[in-house]
């Protein structure tokens, strides 16, 4: 398989995410990261690309960079769930090494096709980025991941983030006056929390994974009223290294995939949390399987069909 196009960026690429919103399907967000040792700092850039089909000859670029936004080093990006119908605007959340989650509004002034075909490849879409909010999440660590709930399940939009200080924070994004923290789990794991994800089918269930090799599930129906927040399940034996990626299946209600630094993908049936299947035997450095079908590895990108996993 040969790539259709590529782009060389100034900093290391940490995360790529296609927009799920109808009307913006061809907008690609790319987050980058660089550690500067002297003087010590972490810097990053948020890039927005348009992707266009390019099968004609002579070959033309399918990647058009629309803008670059200077920011803190980026650990994670996540688009808000798509709204019904077509829209020229979507929200994007950014987990940064400054301990904050940044919320952006991404919009276009020229509608783009759902089939990711631009009628004129020489005229890039006018993509605009607007900063909407900056949510302080931790004073002692880095924000390592971010995720949105499915709004129809809570009657509103929740956002969750994890931190290197072992914390998990859940925020009500639809509260009057702006984002309001609902709960903070201060010692969610024994070591750095690398991933927090809402279940796609049951947004009262929150998954987390950390450097302590533990995969956990949290019941938000108790947590929103009770700061103690009972753990629905916890498994520390299945993974041979830190749990860095969690991906609930968009097609199978009770299937969740986890990725670990031990190089294996595991599939879980959430009705029987103690059992897991090592579904992949390739030794990758740490993988995730988001619903775009792109796995993020520590060594680069590998494209797969999501039917292989769900």
From TrEMBL:
- Which Enzyme Commission numbers does its entry carry? 3.1.1.97
Pathway it belongs to? Protein modification; peptidyl-diphthamide biosynthesis
Gene3D superfamilies (UniProt xref): YVTN repeat-like/Quinoprotein amine dehydrogenase (2.130.10.10)
Q: Which PROSITE patterns match?
A: WD_REPEATS_1, WD_REPEATS_2, WD_REPEATS_REGION
Known catalysed reaction(s)?
diphthine methyl ester-[translation elongation factor 2] + H2O = diphthine-[translation elongation factor 2] + methanol + H(+)
Q: Which UniProt keywords apply?
A: Hydrolase, Repeat, WD repeat
The entry's family comment says: Belongs to the DPH7 family.
GO CC terms in record: cytoplasm
What is the official name of this protein in its record? methylated diphthine methylhydrolase
GO molecular function per UniProt: diphthine methylesterase activity
WD repeat boundaries? Answer: 236-278
According to its UniProt entry, the protein's GO biological process terms are: protein histidyl modification to diphthamide
Q: Which InterPro entries match?
A: Diphthine_MTase, WD40/YVTN_repeat-like_dom_sf, WD40_repeat_CS, WD40_repeat_dom_sf, WD40_rpt
Pfam (any one): WD40
Q: Which SMART domains match?
A: WD40 (SM00320)
| Superkingdom of source | Eukaryota
């Amino acid at each position: 398989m040969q790539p259709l196009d590529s782009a060389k960026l100034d900093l290391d690429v940490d995360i790529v995410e296609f927009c799920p919103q109808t009307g913006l399907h061809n907008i690609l967000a790319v987050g980058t990261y660089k550690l500067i040792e002297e003087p010590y700092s972490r810097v990053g850039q948020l890039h927005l690309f348009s992707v266009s089909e390019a099968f004609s000859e002579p070959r033309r670029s399918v990647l058009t960079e629309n803008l670059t936004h200077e920011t803190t080093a980026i650990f994670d990006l996540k688009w808000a769930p798509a709204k019904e119908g077509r829209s020229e605007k979507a929200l994007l959340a950014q987990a940064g090494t400054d301990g904050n989650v940044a919320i952006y509004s991404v919009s276009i002034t020229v509608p783009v096709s759902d089939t990711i075909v631009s009628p004129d490849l020489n005229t890039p879409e006018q993509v605009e980025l607007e900063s909407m909010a900056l949510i302080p999440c931790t004073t002692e660590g880095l924000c390592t991941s971010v995720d949105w709930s499915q709004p129809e399940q809570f009657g509103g939009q929740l956002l969750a983030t994890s931190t290197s200080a072992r914390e998990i924070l859940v925020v009500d994004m639809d509260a009057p006056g702006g984002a309001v923290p609902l709960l903070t789990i201060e010692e969610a794991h024994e070591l750095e929390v690398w991933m927090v994800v809402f279940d796609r089918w049951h947004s009262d269930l929150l998954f987390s994974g950390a450097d302590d090799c533990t995969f956990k599930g949290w019941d938000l129906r108790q947590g929103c009223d009770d700061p103690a927040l009972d753990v629905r399940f916890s498994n520390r034996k299945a993974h041979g290294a830190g749990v860095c990626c969690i991906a609930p299946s968009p097609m199978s209600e009770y299937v969740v995939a986890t990725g670990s630094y031990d190089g294996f993908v595991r599939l879980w049936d959430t009705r029987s949390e103690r059992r897991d299947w090592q579904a992949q035997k390739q030794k990758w450095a740490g993988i995730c399987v988001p619903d775009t079908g792109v796995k993020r590895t520590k060594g680069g990108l590998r494209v797969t069909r999501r039917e292989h996993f769900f």
